[in-house]
Amino acid sequence: MSSLLKITDLHVSVDEKPILKGVSLEIRQGEIHALMGPNGSGKSTLAYTLVGHPKYEVTSGTIEIDGVPLNDLDPCERARLGMFLAFQYPVTIPGVKVADFLRHAVTNIRNPARKEGESLIPMRDFRKELKDRMEELGMDVEFARRYLNEGFSGGEKKRMEILQLAMLQPKFAILDETDSGLDSDAVRVVSEGLRKLAGPQMGVLIITHHERLLEYNVPQFTHVILAGRIVETGDASLAHELHNHGYAAVRQRHPAEAAEEQEHQKVTSKAAVVAN
Amino acid sequence: MTTDVPVLDDEIGVGDYQYGFHDPTDKYVFKSRRGLDRDIVHQISEMKNEPMWMREFRLEALDLFYSKPMPTWGGDMSELDFQNMFYFVKASQGQEKSWDDVPDDIRKTYDRLGIPEAEKKYLAGVKAQYESEVVYGSLQEDLAKQGVIFTDTDSAVRDYPDLVREYFGTVIPSADNKFAALNSAVWSGGSFIYVPKGVKIEFPLQAYFRINTQNMGQFERTLIIVDEGASVHYVEGCTAPTYSSDSLHSAVVEILVKRGGRCRYTTIQNWSNNVYNLVTKRAKAYGDSLMEWVDGNLGSKLTMKYPAIYLMEPGARGETLSIAFAGKGQHQDAGAKMVHCAPYTSSRVISKSISKDGGRAGYRGLVKATHDAHHCKSNVVCDALILDSHSRSDTYPYIEVNHDNLTIEHEASVSKIAEEQLLYLMSRGMSETEASAMIVTGFIEPLVKELPMEYAVEMNRLIELQMEGSVG
Ligand SMILES: Nc1ncnc2c1ncn2[C@@H]1O[C@H](COP(=O)(O)OP(=O)(O)O)[C@@H](O)[C@H]1O
Ligand SMILES: [Mg+2]
Question: Which helix (H) or strand (E) holds B225?
Fold first, then answer.
């Protein structure tokens, strides 16, 4: 039976300020969803909230996988239940080698009951698997020995996120603007990579402003978020339309949210620049 | 539990510190009374059957110790009671060449510390000091044949009087500071190493220092002479039982690296949290030689230690890599001193400190150049990682240079574990403890990767132990 990620009437605040104002969404394993919306509409907020970022406070609503509530679980427990986020801004962890990090991560995700200090998956198998995945993604195997994201270019960081996705094979993958800031070659690599990985065992939520990723990974559902609410849901053609014509029509169809958006932007114009 | 296992102090929380056990002391050969005076110094000297010059050296140093004030900087020593300490404790009859001949309790302790095991695998020689004296010693035969001397300093005074007299107290005079004076008065044990011209010792020589008695003062005295073109890597480890009242470790380490020689001195200090660790370490590096201190401070209540390198002739290089980890109730005041006494010398200091659970870790460093030391280079980098809001880090870099024909670079940074880094690792299935430990391990990795494999593993293991149960 395929798993279900169910988000019900989610309200989220950052520093006491409400950002998400009632988001509901259901994603099944095997489905691809696109989430689109103007800058500052709350896309990353939703992504961070799903993986349990402590700064994002759920004030009401629920997140469940197959009926198991995630609200009170920490990011580690959520990851072990199959949640994954490809970060919009992956951080650098100095001195930690990609291979060591991934070996720990893969061990924990595959044996969710593992305690600290218990043994890791065998080195040989892991090395082989890592090498295969890196080659599939057209990555230099040398990267395994580098420190995590240290000195990586934008494209290398995003590829590293996809590599982690490939190694961890989560049930639900959220990709937060994984295609932003990349040249077209890199976008192709990432898009093809995702296409190979996404299958009946993975539910995918793609946050994007671009078309390319969606051409390779055609969404069954496209959601539009405006001022912290999902205001429309359609199919792949909606993504296409938004890409070609922008959000003006959406704002016209949803004047209340558009007004809220303007209000929010006035208050937080500085913060919005930083966050985007 | 069988009776031959060393006693664990149940009353005191041994916590994460796994070397907090102690052995019975009833079979000891000799234990001085508490406190310090001329009689005690006489007694030590007599027990050791020393030549007159050494006895006079000691008594002179004792007067210097009395006359010097306590340092007013560094850490809090107000609870350090010199009259409550035992200054000389002899646990066994003498130094053995076979572990089988070392008294059972003591041997088992070293077994638990993994020393005989390590000796078999990757060491060229071992000295095990237990309380005041060395109880076991070994050196690979081929090294002995090449003229390498690796013995305890007591034996060296007897067996190599000329060498010892020539160098003893020349790098660190008794008058250098209060604790150097104290050590000079009551010193016992420590390593004496001589590496003849051109002899390169491939595997490390290791000394292991163990305090067992409560309120014990351990004052080992180490003297290393690396002759021209020779090289050696010396490693020391230290542990002690966890007691409710304090012990004192105050060593003096003097090193001479002659022209073209190399010496690396690695310390992995893991004293229990009731030990004052006040150590003076100094090396003189001559032409085209390389002296390196690798200094890992994880244990003790208070450590004040600033390994120094005097760059005596052109081409001499000095490097200090220092890692300090201060947990609950700990203050690590560690650092480095580089003194450029000649032109065309260079020095480098890399210091990483970590503080958590209210611990305090700092870097105190001095770079100094004499008038004629032109065309010198010095590079100092210190990074501090603070794991929580009630822990503390300090940086005190001092520079004393009277001219500008010298390049000094100094960088310092202080960071906290970023919430974003924790989130990132945790979102990949790492627990909070694992994630923090990974960040800390990564932080010190540039230093740890300088260590030989076995010590790198040991260092990472100790860091993980320090991290366990500390978060959340
Ligand atoms: N970490 C944060 N700190 C402060 N404000 C934030 C933070 N994250 C999000 N916000 C606020 O939430 C709003 C939505 O941000 P975000 O979810 O990043 O939007 P999107 O990803 O759709 O561009 C922003 O306008 C900003 O005001
Ligand atoms: Mg965003």
Answer: strand B221-226
For tokens 């609410």, name the residue.
A229
Say if the Cβ atoms of B428 and A79 lie within 8 Å: yes
Q: How many CA atoms lie within 13 A of B159 on its CB side?
A: 11
Atom of ligand 1 nearest to the CA of A19: 12
From B329, B332, B378, select the one nearest B352 (Cα to Cα): B332
Q: CA B64, CA B184: separation in Å to the nearest integer?
A: 10
Residue of A nearest to B439 (CA): A93
Q: Within an 8 Å CB–CB cutoff, is residue A79 touching chain B?
A: yes
Please tell me what DSSP assigns to residue B215.
T
User: What residue ranges in A154-196 does DSSP mark as E strands?
Assistant: 172-176
**In the block, which residue shows the tokens 């020391």?**
B236
* B27 φ/ψ angles, rounded to the nearest 5 degrees: -95, 10
Structural domains of chain A sorted by starting position, each given as residue range(s) with its CATH number in brackets: 4-89+171-275 (3.40.50.300)
Per-residue pLDDT of chain B (472 residues; tens, 9 = 90+): 333 334 433 333 344 678 888 999 888 989 999 999 999 999 999 999 999 999 999 999 999 999 999 999 999 999 999 999 999 999 998 899 999 999 998 999 999 888 999 899 889 999 999 999 999 999 999 999 999 999 999 999 999 999 999 999 999 999 999 999 999 999 999 999 999 999 999 999 999 999 999 999 999 999 999 999 999 999 999 888 888 889 999 999 999 999 999 999 999 999 999 999 999 999 999 999 999 999 999 999 999 999 999 999 999 999 999 999 999 999 999 999 999 999 999 999 999 999 999 999 999 999 999 988 999 999 999 999 999 889 999 999 999 987 777 888 999 888 888 889 999 999 999 999 899 999 999 999 988 888 888 888 888 888 877 776 443 3
Q: Calculate how close chain A gets to B462, using CA atoms only, in Å.
A: 13
Nearest to B265 by CA among B287, B239, B288, B232: B232
Q: Does the CB of B170 have a partner CB in chain A at under 8 Å?
A: no
Distance CA A49, CA A35 (A): 15
